[in-house]
Amino acid sequence: MKTNSEKKRSRGILWRILFFLLLLILFAVLELGKHTILGWILLVLVFAAFYVFRSTKLKEKSKGIRFLSWIALLILCGIVLWISWPPVRLIPAVQAKNPAKTDLIHVTQGDLTGVVTEDKEVEVFAGIPYAKPPVGDLRWKEPQSADAWEGILEADHFAPMSMQVQNLPIYNSLAQIIGYHDYHISLKDNYREPVSEDSLYLNIWRPAQKTDQALPVLVYIHGGSLQTGQPWYQDYSGEGLARKGIIVVNMAYRLGIFGFYADPALAEESPNHTTGNYGLLDQILALQWVKDNIAAFGGDPENITISGESAGSACVSALCTSPLAKGLFKRVILESSTVSAPKPAHSFRLLDEAYETAEQMKDRLHAHSLKDLRALPAGKIVREMAIHHHITIDGFVLPEIPYESYQKGIYNEEAQLQGFNREEGAPFIIFSPANMKNYEQKIRASFEDPYADQILSLFPAQTDAEAKRNWADIYTAVLFTYGHYCLGREAVANEIPCYMYHFTKENGRLGSWHSGEEVYFYHNIPDGSALYTEEDRALSDMVSSYMINFIKNGDPNGDGLPRWNTFAGTEPVLELGDNVKETKIPYLDLYEILDQIQEYK
């Protein structure tokens, strides 16, 4: 039996273990939650004071008093977390302290200057308005050209990202750790990135070395399910390709309910009788701005390529058949999504579906007039993003489904470079994998008979591992790769040169998951990153060279690169992985079934 002194010693050890464990947890919360340095200082002071007080003043007090002391500590910790919450801060275009300014540039709206990277290789012009802020009465209206400004615009910070639901900083940090395996402890990133309805700005990267020859231009459209995303993310930053001799532009556009809400009352008030595709209209206006102004930056307005990934690629495929986008670009690069199938798998819906969800939303919000809807604060309606993030057939931006336009020989591009990754579906089913208990149920819930039976026969599973692998492949094919197969065949039928890729390279970060190719394509693998090998960097140099060649002249081939032949229906597809080689497009047997389901002709 323990003596009183032994019991006291055990209690002393226990409370000290709890003390240091709680301190470590809160330090982790401060770091992952991006709290300010003030939080670290206050937390140390609070815990130091508690330790001294608990070791001296409370040693002989009752259990109740000691318990209340822990409650007081937790309350103080909560206060520290609250007052050290990370502030909202605009993101600098160049991370170097006091970067050099560029020469003066004159555009339609006025004069501006940008900033130069620390190595003097690239000039960046960030936060240039291309449209009036779509707020107040301009919410859910066609974008209007930006007003002129007085003086010189210092384009040295990225503008806020478009209005969207934001995760807590700790959630984003955990996503970096679990999903990207790419997290760096730092006290320099203790801030939150801003969001706003006032987000219609674009960014330009160009080589700092001047030339008399007009440079080809790439305009990139970011992804994010048409609900999230921002144009300054490092993986697809324009800096990497600008270092290889081209000009890169990207932009924010309206997302979710702000960019894709469709309402018959909005169509009635519109001079173009349109509704639902405001995000696409933003992209078209940005392209027009580039066409009108890129020469001032040394770019060639007659040599513009547009690219996008995921939902951004879906937008690119829509712009390929929009009459409003004709003449604004020559070539397209589409990564990991299209709306080119007869029944697009995502990011798309018909107008009557959009109208139905609009009525349901208005009932939910008790707002039935446009005046009422426009009076609602952005923070209240942003939660409706999940049901209003679809491109639609509005009769103005898109007269018909892109598949139907290609069937008629209507398209805007001169050449395509497009493709997909091996593990596209992986991040979307990570929390709902298939096993032998639910595999058949998942298939039958996704496909009607007799197609479910055909797919189960095509993808038999005898083990949990096989069920998991099959479901991942089926998900990848249906949601992502089949649309590219449709678009490739549409290109062949219309004699559009099409270069198809299949990205299979694994690494320590995203590998061949959805969006894993971007850091390679846009030549942005970080220097010194242990997550990528020299083989990864060599592949990035090769793939970005293909990109540069295609952007310049519509053909990715060039000196020192493995030959990339045009797609002819099922092959060749260029595999981009440990080996770069030609192969057939994957999942052909499944595509035959999908053709029947979609009534592809």
Structural commentary:
This protein is α/β, with parallel strands linked by helices. It has three domains: 4-83; 100-166 and 203-413, Alpha/Beta hydrolase fold, catalytic domain (Rossmann fold, 3-Layer(aba) Sandwich); 426-601, Alpha/Beta hydrolase fold, catalytic domain (Rossmann fold, 3-Layer(aba) Sandwich), CATH 3.40.50.1820. Helix content is 39%, strand content 14%. It has 19 helices and 18 strands. It has helices spanning 4-32, 37-56, 63-83, 169-180, 239-242, 256-260, 264-269, 278-293, 311-319, 351-365, 370-375, 378-381, 402-407, 439-446, 451-458, 464-493, 518-521, 534-553, 588-598, and strands at 105-107, 110-113, 115-116, 122-129, 152-154, 161-162, 195-196, 201-207, 215-221, 247-251, 299-309, 331-335, 348-349, 391-392, 415-421, 498-503, 573-576, 580-583. The strands form four sheets. An eleven-stranded mixed β-sheet has the order 3-4-8-10-9-11-12-15-16-17-18, sandwiched between helices. It has a three-stranded mixed β-sheet with strand order 1-2-5, with no helix packed on it. The chain has a two-stranded parallel ribbon with strand order 6-7. A hairpin with a 5-residue loop joins β3 and β4. α2 (37-56) packs antiparallel against α3 and α15 runs antiparallel to α19 (588-598). 44% of the residues are buried.
